[in-house]
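To the team - 4'-deoxy-4'-aminopyridoxal-5'-phosphate complex, inputs and output below.
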Amino acid sequence: MSLSDKLSQQVSQVPRSGIRDFFELVQGRDDVISLGVGEPDFATPWHIREAVIYSLGQGKTSYTSNLGLPSLREAIGEHVRNEFGVGYDAESEIIVTVGVSEALDLAFRALLNPGDEVVYHEPCYVSYSPSIVMAYGKAVPVATRAKNRFALMAADVEAALTDRTKVLVLNFPTNPTGGVMSETELAKVAKLCIERDLIVVSDEIYSELRYAPERAHPTIIQQPGMRERTVFLHGFSKAFAMTGFRLGYACAPAELTEAMMKIHQYSMLCAPISSQVAAIEALENGAASVEKMRLAYERRRSMVLHRLETMGIPCYAPGGTFYVFPDIRGTGLTSREFAVKLLEEENVAVVPGDAFGPSGEGFVRCCFGANPDDLKVAMERMSAFVDRTC
Ligand code: PMP
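Output:
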């Protein structure tokens, strides 16, 4: 019997993540400094961990309502209203999910019929295209460029639209580029979405991690007419350093939330209660911890940008996230050659830009969420590598 004949075609056609493949090379090597994984080096702030420990002591170990604890949904509603200026009803328009990862999957599965097209900007988070394909959609990438600060140009979106386009995915600030959108360009994209009757899935996971002079953060839901056609996704992994808690949420008009809830109810049931308790504490008392970590990333970002400049490697100063996406074309190497040689010769792991889609070729992603001492040594090693190579 051949098991490959038995597998779902939808799953078989999806490639493994390029990040995973690359990190198999990293495994088994000693003394590697990894700037590869998109994760803060901070542990979750202590007051959040303590709230969970206390709740476990109290015996809070049950299921919750499918949509999530009512008090968490209230806290999310308040947070989104205060930070993004848009209100959602805690009873019918907010669903708590297992990370933004699950929220993305729910949004695509709730919206797509076979063959519906989803436009997204690229280079992008590695999950978008596979999640769209596994929901029977067609993934349609639109390239963004360093000269436009990796913002999405409305004209490029327009050129990619067809009669089958149903959804546009936005992720600003962007993983892996750190790109941000200006209010003017965002307004053009919003106008186009209304004209062409598109739904927007807006992945806001890096929203809190923005740096001067890009501190203002225009988002698509604030644009006139967009709240009713936007699924707003956010979570706790990045800003609160809570990757292991696996907690996120989606806010959307009630009909869409109900559709996502049906999938979530039958596949996940609910997000873990301990993580929901952690999220309440994060939203109620975590702002100072987030700001402390953001300032630390801002210092690391300046150091990394300065070092890259000294190496003669061009790099857009990211408006947000904890990634830089330097342009390594001047070295004469492809993204993959650069990453493999840097690993083999200097024991520093970065992610080849093509792991984020073909338009990431010529770039690599370095995460400055890493430990600052490691980051300094990694930059010294990269500098020695570039000197030797160029
Ligand atoms: N969206 C983006 C843009 C991401 O970078 C990530 C994680 N790297 C996710 C979603 C998934 O995050 P979570 O941990 O909330 O599932």
